[in-house]
Design a protein that fits this description.
Layout: H1 52-60, E1 66-70, H2 77-87, E2 92-97, H3 105-119, H4 139-151, E3 157-162, H5 170-181, E4 187-193, H6 201-206, E5 210-213, H7 215-218, H8 222-232, H9 239-249, H10 253-263, H11 280-293, H12 297-306, H13 314-321, H14 326-335, E6 340-342, E7 350-352, H15 354-367, H16 371-386, H17 389-398, H18 402-418, H19 422-431, H20 434-438, H21 441-453, H22 460-469, H23 483-497, H24 501-514, H25 520-536, H26 540-551, H27 560-576, H28 580-597, H29 606-619, H30 622-638, H31 642-658, H32 662-676, H33 684-698, H34 719-729, H35 734-741, H36 745-759, H37 764-773
Helix pairs in contact: 8-9, 10-11, 11-15, 13-14, 13-16, 16-17, 17-18, 18-19, 18-21, 19-21, 21-22, 21-23, 22-23, 23-24, 23-25, 24-25, 25-26, 25-27, 26-27, 27-28, 27-29, 28-29, 29-30, 29-31, 30-31, 31-32, 31-33, 32-33, 32-37, 34-36, 34-37, 35-36
Length: 780
Amino acid sequence: MAEQTPSVVQPISAAQRTGNRLERRTDLDDGPLIVLSKLHPPTPRRSTVGRKELLARLAEENSAKLVLVVAPAGWGKTSLLGEWCSACETERMAWLSVDQGDNDPVCFWAHFIAALNKVSPEINADARQLVTAPGGKSADILLSHIINDFELLPTRVTLIVDDYHQIRNKDIHECVEYLIAHMPPSLRLVLATRSDPALPLARLRARGEMTEIRTDDLRFTEAETAGLLNETLHLGLSSDDVRLLRQRTEGWAAGLYLAGLSLSGHERPDTPVSAFAGDDRQIVDYLVAEVLDEQPAHIRSFLMRTAVLDRLSARLCDAVTGEGGSQRILEEIERSGLFVVPLDTSRRWYRYHTLFAETLRRELDRSEPRLAPLLHRRASEWYRQDGSIAEAVGHAIMASDLADAKELIATRWISYFNEGLASTAESWLNSLPPEMVAEDSRLCLANAWIASHLGRLDEVERWLEAGDAATRQGTFTDGPGSIESAACIVRSHASHLLGDLAGAEAASRRAVELAADRTERCRAVALAALGASLYWQGRDAEAFEILKQVAEPLQPPVDNLASLWALGCLAAITLRQGEHGRCERYLKRAAELVAQHGLGMYREAATAVLASADLLESRGELHAAEEAALSGLELAQRGQARLETAQAWLCLARIKLRAGSGAEAAGCISAAREMIGACAAPGIVTELATSTARLAGQHASAPKSGPRPRGRRPDGLTGREAEVLRLLAAGKTNSEIAADLVVSVHTVERHLQNAYRKLGVRNRGQAAAYIARTAPLRQA
């Protein structure tokens, strides 16, 4: 009876994908930090005026994929949508408040998944690991995963994304566009923003797939104005004064509310109504000054000093103001309606309304111009002690403490990188003067590793050379023990991905030397890289002895990824030597490691996956072998690993030959040779391509069909559709394809959808396999 097929050969779930980390952990199941307060809709205040007409309109618009709420600050977008969440009983409502930190795609999509998972447990929260994939090209798989999950939901879910104008990352916009285009009926997206987002609004509008609520819709009616001023704020204004005040503020919610607060301090509230005039900023400045003048000195001081904070808590406010009693003051100003919004149900975290905070900061700069840097410095110190490094860095930069910010970044970027937040770490580096980065070897190395992770391999060596020339300013607090050790590891990693085995061997040998007196983990990572480079050069005996030092120690391994890579190489070596039983044992251990730690979508898993495909092909289990080979191809392409990509195409070619599909095999061989041509020192893959081509030649004796007419493809694809598929099969994103072809991303998406429909395929993996089979058609 045949031994059970190792689980590592099964197609790899998108939910298992996660990214390469500099400091490898034994427990990789924790995802990026989720700020839970961002997932809570605002609690409607007692002073909120019900917007019945707008709520009814939102409830009626059930067919729209996108609900867009667009207006400047202070027009009541958040209040309206928060009231909708509280009032809606017909469907599940999820909430996400975004901020500037969510321009990191990992942060945005992690919170996006967490928000959906909060109201729909059917959505797998582990999918957020997918967005940390090397090269940053995993969002299409992530979105397919979300879309497929929602296809199964029996009831509708609405996700509200508040403050979407904070998102400036074009990759996020493109993925949101893709999500909207393929959104199932069980999901509706609501975006609240100050300006039109970078989405195809005209197309959605023309198709009737979007509902819009804009400034004119949000203006308070006369009845709503009277309700706010007389019923909520108890001012007792006449209908003429209500009408005049609405005209002067043009129904602007924030202006009306501030006016009400200001008038409530007068013995005769109707007297100053005629004084309100001017644009929004003038009204706010005037009214906030009026409101502040009515506050006790300690409240006024607290408001201005804490306005430098994006979020408020009692302990943080105590640290920034240098005084105690902040919790009592926060509760007091919330009760008085001074534009403070609770961010959680326990009243631990708050924020000021944006307009109110901006005006408070201007008032602080006017009255105490030298105080803001000190307040930011205090906030940075508090966040540093609290372990919130992103906020600590931000406040240090706002305080102009660039040297302090640099040290924070240099010593703590690794922890954020390890959470998949490479873009966040890169934004920190970009916030420093370029000369400050270039003079510190630690920061140069950080740029090198981040560039490698984000798929910009051509930048890696430049940053490493800059690091060699820079001043060596200390060691790491985590990960490799020295700058040189870390530089060798990243150089080895980048060289391997580029197919430069000579460079990879040299760098990994030096890394092994430097790791001799370091931790076991550093040594394991270096040995795995060296053993892999030797394996790919065909030096099996030497590689075997080195790799055993990583894979043979007792469980648990000192480094999961190093062990996984070593086990995959050992399985491939023993299979090449005809030791199938030993190969199966290595694959079984690799499968257990993958299952235990969710490593199935790491690039390091590709070698084991492809070894299992070869093993299955040798047994004649061609369908399972093809599934494994396609999974290996996906891993390799997304990890931008040229050697593994070429090997996967050659593995598919051999499978197709055994299945009698010579033309399909020829396409796979062509794709492999194209990838090998991009490698500086590809090692055994060149010989493997030659032997596979020779095998294909032996299968080429079958009679050929007559010539096909030029200019037409039998599958119905246009030339441009076929070209888009070819670039997709090469591992390029929609954005990269658009850049190569000098067209818009929307055009690329349209070509792909047309091609998918003509070919009867459903995803990128199937499309890539098809284009490999049809490569010979390009010669037709």
